[in-house]
C-alpha cells in the first residue's frame, strides 16, 4: 500500500472519528434537553416532608438512578465540552499528522465511547426514546468503524514499513 493510500486512509479515520464525536455530542445534548423539558409536578407540602424523611435531602431522587462511572456525571456540560475538544483534537491530529500514537488514541477512545454508547442504548431502550437510541447507535457504529479502520491502518503501515 502506497503512501497516498495510507494518507487517504488516515484522513478517512480522522473524519469518521470527528463525525462520531459530533453524533455523541448531539446525543448527549438531546438527552439533556429532553431531561430539562420534562414536566415535573411540584410535590405537595406533605409529600415533600415525607420524601425528605425517606430520601435524605431529596437530591437525586428524580425518577431513576443515572449511570455515574467514577462518580462522574457523564451528561454535564463541562465534561461534554472537554471530551468534545479532546476528541476533535485527536481527529485533527490523525488527519494532519497520522502517527501511531494518534491512531492508537482513536482505537482506545473509540472503543471506550462505543462501550458507553451501548450502555446508553440499553438505558434509552428502557425509556422508549427511539430518536436517542438511533443517535447513540449511529455514534457507536461510527466510533467502532473508526477504531477498526485505525487498527487496519496501523497494520498496513507496519507491513509497508517491513517491506521497505
Give structural notes.
This protein is an all-alpha fold and 164 residues long. It has one domain (3-36, 79-163). Helix content is 78%, strand content 0%. Helix 1 (3-37) runs parallel beside helix 4 (100-127), helix 3 (77-96) packs antiparallel against helix 4 and helix 4 packs antiparallel against helix 5. It is elongated, with a radius of gyration of 21 Å. The N and C termini lie close together (11 Å). The relative contact order is 0.18. The model is unreliable at 46-63 (pLDDT under 50).
Task: Write a brief caption for the model.
This protein is mainly alpha-helical and 164 residues long. 78% of the residues lie in helices and 0% in strands. The protein has helices spanning 3-37, 45-55, 77-96, 100-127, 130-163.
Summarize the SSE layout with pairings.
Elements: H1 3-37, H2 45-55, H3 77-96, H4 100-127, H5 130-163
Helix pairs in contact: 1-3, 1-4, 1-5, 3-4, 4-5
Q: Give the number of DSSP strands.
A: 0
- The helix/strand class is mainly alpha
Q: What is the total domain count?
A: 1
Helix residue percentage: over 70%
Shape: elongated
Low-confidence stretches: 46-63
Number of helices: 5
Largest sheet features:
none
What oligomeric state do these chains adopt?
single chain
Radius of gyration: 21 Å
User: How are helices and strands ordered from N to C?
Assistant: HHHHH
Q: Beta-strand level of the residues, as a percent range?
A: under 5%
Terminal residue distance: 11 Å
Mean pLDDT: 81
